[in-house]
C-alpha cells in the first residue's frame, strides 16, 4: 500500500511547514513517510511543492503518479493535473480563501480527514510545532474547520510502528553532536545551510559553538586554526563554497591538522540551479586541493547513515590527522525520511594530540623537517611525501572495519545495480520484489575491494547516478579497470522517482 | 605537527635566518621576541603563546620564534588566528602578516577582524612591496611605483590601512617604525595586553625592491598618549598617505578603546576562559 500526496503553492504559503506537520501526523498514525521538497530560489511567490509519500512499509522515495493534490493556488492545479492518478483527489484552496495565512492548516485538516486519521493526532502535531506562537489558536481552529468539511476516503487503520522523522541536515547535526563536536564553521549556501541552522539551535544545550565568518575561505582557515588548538571541528558548504575552500584542504594535507568537511552538492556548474539536486561533486570531493595528500570521502544515502558516517568521518580525521569529506546532496539534506530504527552507537572522537598550552607545537603550510621548521631539502621532500602515502595505506586498511559498501535487494541476483548517496532510496524502493541486487557505495575513498568481486560475479551491471557523466563509474573504472556500459543517469536537477526508475530498469 | 628544538638565545629556534642581510625583518623579529619575553617575565606562560603567519618574507618569523603556531596560507593569517583563539580562548594569539598578505589577498579578513573584535594581535610588516615574489606593487605601494608587473607605474592610490582599520571598528590601532626596537617592543606588548583586536602596522624598508619609498625615519614622529577619540584618530591617520612626499608620519597608538570581544559574546567561551581550559580539556 502506498499513497503519494502533492502539496503545492507559492513560496511563503507554508507548503513545507504543512507537509512537515502532516508527515508527523501520518507517522504518529504508524505509517512510514518520505517527504520530497521541490522549490525554486525564490523567497515569496513562484511555485513550491512537496511530494509526501506514505506506506505501511519502509519507503525512502517519492513517485511520479499522485493520489491526492493539495493545491494552495490555481497554478498548482494546472501544473500538476496530469500527474493525478485516475480517481485521484484534488483538495482545492478556494473553499478556505477567507482563512488567509491559515489556509495551509485548513487544507491539512481536510487531508487528514481524507486519509482517515483522527483529528486529535493532527491537532497534537500542530500544537507541538507551533508551541508558544500567538497564532496557534487560529491555526488549530483552521485545521478543525478543514477537517470537518471533508469526508473520509482512504480509511488508514492505525498501525503500531514507532517512527521518527528526520532530514539529512538534522542528521548532520546529530552525527556531529554524537561525535562531541566543539566548533562548526559555515557560510550560508544551499543546500548545506540547514545543517548550520540545525547545529546553531542546539549549540547551547550541547556545549558547542557554530560560527558564520565572512566567507568559506575564512571558515576553513578558522577551522584549521581551531583544530590546531585542540577543538573537534567541522566546516559545512556546497559546491561553489567548497571550491573556495580547496586551498584550505591542501593546507590540511601538509599540516596534518584534523579536519572534517560536510559537502552538500547541488546543480552546477557555476551558480547552476541552486535549490535542486545533482551528484555532480564527487570528482571535486576526491581530488580538490593541489598536491598529493590522503583523504577520506564518505557518502551516506539517508539520514540514519548520515548520523553514522559523520561520526566515522570525524573519528577518522582525528585518529589519522587527515581530511574527511562527508559528501551529501540536496535530496538527502532536505528530504524528510521516516524510520523505526536508531543509528548505531557512536565512536568516541578524542583529541589525544599535544596542543598549544601544553608545550610548543607547530603546524605549517610548508614542508617541515624533523625539528618542525621549514625545509626545502630533497631528503625531507621525499620522506614527507612518502609518509603521506603510508598514512593513506593505514587509513585504507583501518576503514575495512566500517560499512564501506552495503548490499540491498536480492542478494543472489546476477543483475547488479551500483549507485551511491541520494539515489539509494529510489533504487531500494524500485527493485523491491524484482530480481536485482543493489550495491550501495558509501566509501568513495578508500574504495572497497569488494566492489570488483561483486562486479565479476554479476551477469549484468547497471550504474545509476544523478549526474551527466557517471562519476562513480569513472572512479570504479580507475580502480578496477572495468567500464560499466549500462548506465541510467539523470541530470535535470530532479532526483529519481522509484516508479520511473523501475521503468528505466525494464528498458535497459 | 612537530616539536621544534632550540638552543642559544631565549625564544629563538636554531633555524638559520634566510632574510637578506640588513633587512628590517631581523629587527621586527627582535622587537617581537623582546615583547613576548617581557610578558613572560611578567607571568605569561611561554606555552600559552601561539602565532599564525601568512606567506611572504614576514612569515619566516615562524621558523625563528620558539612559540607554538600555524604557518598558514598567503592572506589567511587572520582567520587562522581567530580559529586558534576560538579553539582555546586562553591562548595569546599573535598573527604576523605582510602588506600583500593582509591588504591584498586577505583584505576581507582584515576588515572583518576589525568588526568581530577577536582578542588577538595582528602585526603587519608593511614594506609596500611584494618582495618575496620579486617586487610587484601591493595595495600600499606609492603612486608611480614601476615594477616588472606594473611597467607603466602603479596608478592606483595606496590604501591607508590605519584609516581603514579605524573606520572598520578596530579597537586598538598603532603604527611603528621597524628600525625602532624599543618603541616597537613597547607597542606590541601593549597590543597583546589589549582585550580585543589589536592591530600594529610596522613601516619597514625593503632593501632590494621599492627603494624609492625608503629612508623615511626623519619624517616620523611619536604620538603622545593613546587616549583620543575616533575623530581625532581618523584625522591623525590621514597625515601620511603612503605616497612619496615630505609630510610627517605619526607613530604610536592612534586609538584604543575597550569593547566586548568576540569571546565575551559567547557564553561557552566565557566559561572556558574562566576555567582556563581549551576545548581539549573542557568537560561538557
Protein described:
By secondary structure, chain A is an alpha/beta fold. Chain A contains 18 helices and 20 strands. Chain A has helices at 15-28, 74-80, 103-115, 119-129, 136-148, 168-178, 193-200, 203-206, 216-228, 239-255, 282-287, 303-320, 330-334, 378-399, 424-430, 450-457, 471-480, 498-507, and strands at residues 2-11, 32-38, 45-55, 66-71, 84-92, 164-167, 183-186, 209-211, 233-237, 259-265, 295-298, 323-329, 336-339, 362-364, 405-409, 415-420, 437-441, 443-445, 460-465, 486-489. In chain A, the strands form 3 sheets. Chain A has a 7-stranded mixed beta sheet, sandwiched between helices. A 7-stranded mixed beta sheet of chain A has the order 8-7-9-10-12-11-18, with helices on both faces. In chain A, helix 1 runs parallel beside helix 3 and helix 4 runs antiparallel to helix 5 (136-148). Chain A is globular. Chain A starts with a strand and ends with a helix. By secondary structure, chain B is α/β, with parallel strands linked by helices. Chain B contains 9 helices and 8 strands. Chain B has helices spanning 25-41, 61-64, 77-87, 99-105, 107-116, 161-168, 181-193, 230-237, 267-275, and strands at 49-53, 68-71, 92-98, 120-126, 172-177, 198-203, 220-222, 249-256. An 8-stranded mixed beta sheet of chain B has the order 2-1-3-4-6-5-8-7, with helices on both faces. The longest helix of chain B is centred in the N-terminal third of the chain and has 17 residues, at 25-41. Chain B is globular, with a radius of gyration of 18 Å. Chain B starts with 24 loop residues before the first helix and ends in a 9-residue tail after the last helix. The mean pLDDT of chain B is 96. The interface between A and B is large, with 58 and 53 residues.
Amino acid at each position: 500500500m502506498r499513497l503519494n500526496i502533492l502539496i503545492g503553492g507559492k513560496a511563503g504559503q507554508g507548503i513545507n511547514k504543512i507537509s512537515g506537520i502532516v508527515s508527523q501526523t501520518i507517522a504518529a498514525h504508524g505509517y512510514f513517510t518520505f517527504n520530497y521538497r521541490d522549490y525554486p530560489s525564490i523567497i515569496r511567490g513562484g511555485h513550491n511543492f512537496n511530494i509526501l509519500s506514505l506506506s505501511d512499509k519502509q519507503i525512502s522515495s517519492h513517485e511520479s503518479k499522485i493520489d491526492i493534490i493539495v493545491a494552495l493556488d490555481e497554478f498548482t492545479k494546472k501544473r500538476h493535473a496530469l500527474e493525478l492518478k485516475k480517481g485521484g483527489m484534488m483538495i482545492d484552496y478556494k473553499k478556505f480563501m477567507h482563512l488567509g495565512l491559515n489556509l495551509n492548516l485548513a487544507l491539512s485538516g481536510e487531508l487528514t480527514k481524507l486519509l482517515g486519521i483522527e483529528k486529535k493526532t493532527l491537532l497534537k502535531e500542530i500544537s507541538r510545532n507551533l508551541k508558544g506562537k500567538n497564532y496557534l489558536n487560529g491555526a488549530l481552529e483552521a485545521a478543525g474547520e478543514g477537517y470537518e468539511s471533508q469526508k473520509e476516503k482512504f480509511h488508514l487503520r492505525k498501525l503500531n510502528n514507532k517512527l521518527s522523522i528526520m532530514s539529512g541536515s538534522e542528521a548532520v547535526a546529530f552525527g556531529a553532536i554524537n561525535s562531541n563536536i566543539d566548533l562548526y564553521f559555515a557560510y550560508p549556501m544551499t543546500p548545506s545551510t540547514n545543517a548550520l541552522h540545525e547545529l546553531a539551535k542546539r549549540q547551547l544545550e550541547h556545549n558547542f559553538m557554530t560560527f558564520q565568518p565572512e566567507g568559506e575561505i575564512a571558515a576553513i582557515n578558522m577551522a584549521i586554526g581551531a583544530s590546531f588548538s585542540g577543538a573537534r571541528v567541522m566546516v559545512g558548504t556546497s559546491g561553489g563554497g567548497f571550491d573556495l575552500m580547496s586551498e584550505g584542504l591542501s593546507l590540511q594535507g601538509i599540516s596534518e591538522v584534523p579536519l572534517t568537511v560536510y559537502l552538500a552538492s547541488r546543480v552546477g556548474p557555476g551558480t547552476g540551479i541552486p535549490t535542486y539536486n545533482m551528484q555532480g561533486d564527487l570528482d571535486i570531493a576526491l581530488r580538490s586541493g593541489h598536491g598529493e595528500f590522503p583523504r577520506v570521502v564518505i557518502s551516506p544515502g539517508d539520514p540514519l547513515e548520515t548520523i553514522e558516517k559523520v561520526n566515522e568521518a570525524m573519528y577518522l580525521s582525528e585518529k589519522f590527522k587527515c581530511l574527511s569529506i562527508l559528501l551529501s546532496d540536496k535530496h538527502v539534506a532536505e528530504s524528510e525520511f521516516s524510520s523505526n530504527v536508531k543509528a548505531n552507537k557512536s565512536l568516541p572522537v578524542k583529541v589525544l594530540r599535544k596542543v598549544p598550552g601544553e608545550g610548543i607545537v607547530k603546524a605549517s603550510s610548508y614542508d617541515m623537517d624533523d625539528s618542525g621548521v621549514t625545509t626545502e631539502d630533497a631528503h625531507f621532500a621525499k620522506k614527507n611525501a612518502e609518509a603521506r602515502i603510508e598514512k593513506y595505506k593505514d587509513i585504507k586498511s583501518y576503514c575495512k572495519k566500517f560499512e564501506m559498501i552495503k548490499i540491498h535487494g536480492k542478494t543472489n541476483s546476477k543483475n547488479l545495480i551500483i549507485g551511491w548517496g541520494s539515489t539509494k532510496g529510489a533504487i531500494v524502493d524500485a527493485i523491491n520484489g524484482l530480481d536485482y541486487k543493489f550495491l550501495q557505495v558509501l566509501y568513495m575513498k578508500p574504495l572497497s575491494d569488494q566492489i570488483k568481486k561483486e562486479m565479476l560475479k554479476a551477469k549484468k551491471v547497471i550504474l545509476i547516478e544523478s549526474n551527466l557523466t557517471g562519476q562513480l563509474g569513472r572512479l570504479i573504472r580507475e580502480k578496477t579497470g572495468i567500464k560499466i556500459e549500462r548506465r541510467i543517469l539523470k541530470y535535470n536537477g530532479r532526483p529519481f522517482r522509484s516508479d520511473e526508475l523501475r521503468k528505466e530498469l525494464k528498458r535497459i | 605537527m612537530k616539536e621544534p628544538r632550540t638552543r642559544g638565545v631565549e625564544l629563538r629556534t636554531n633555524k638559520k635566518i634566510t632574510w637578506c642581510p640588513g633587512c628590517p625583518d631581523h629587527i621586527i623579529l627582535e622587537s617581537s621576541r623582546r615583547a613576548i619575553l617581557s610578558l613572560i617575565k611578567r607571568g605569561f606562560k611561554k606555552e600559552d603563546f601561539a602565532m599564525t603567519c601568512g606567506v611572504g618574507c614576514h612569515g619566516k618569523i615562524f621558523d625563528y620564534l620558539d612559540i607554538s603556531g600555524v604557518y598558514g596560507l598567503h592572506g589567511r593569517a587572520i582567520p587562522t588566528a581567530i580559529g586558534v583563539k576560538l579553539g582555546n580562548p586562553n591562548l595569546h594569539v599573535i598573527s604576523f602578516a605582510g602588506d600583500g598578505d593582509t591588504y591584498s589577498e586577505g583584505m576581507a579578513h582584515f576588515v572583518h577582524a576589525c568588526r568581530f573584535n577577536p582578542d588577538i594581535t595582528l602585526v603587519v610588516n608593511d614594506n609596500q612591496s611584494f618582495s618575496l615574489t620579486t617586487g610587484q606593487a601591493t595595495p600600499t605601494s606609492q603612486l608611480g611605483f614601476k615594477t616588472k608587473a606594473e611597467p607603466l607605474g602603479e596608478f592606483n592610490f595606496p590604501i591607508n590601512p590605519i584609516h581603514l582599520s579605524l573606520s572598520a571598528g578596530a579597537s586598538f590601532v598603532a603604527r611603528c617604525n621597524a628600525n625602532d626596537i624599543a618603541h616597537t617592543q613597547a607597542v606590541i606588548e601593549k597590543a597583546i595586553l589589549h582585550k580585543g583586536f589589536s592591530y600594529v602596522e610596522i613601516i619597514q624598508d625593503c632593501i632590494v625592491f621599492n627603494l624609492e619609498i625608503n629612508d623615511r625615519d626623519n619624517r616620523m614622529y611619536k604620538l603622545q598618549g593613546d587616549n583620543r577619540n575616533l575623530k581625532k584618530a581618523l584625522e591623525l591617520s590621514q597625515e601620511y598617505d603612503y605616497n612619496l612626499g615630505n609630510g610627517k608620519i605619526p607613530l604610536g597608538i592612534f586609538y584604543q578603546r575597550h569593547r566586548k570581544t568576540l569571546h565575551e559574546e559567547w557564553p561557552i567561551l566565557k566559561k572556558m576562559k574562566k576555567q582556563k581550559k581549551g576545548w581539549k580539556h573542557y568537560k561538557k
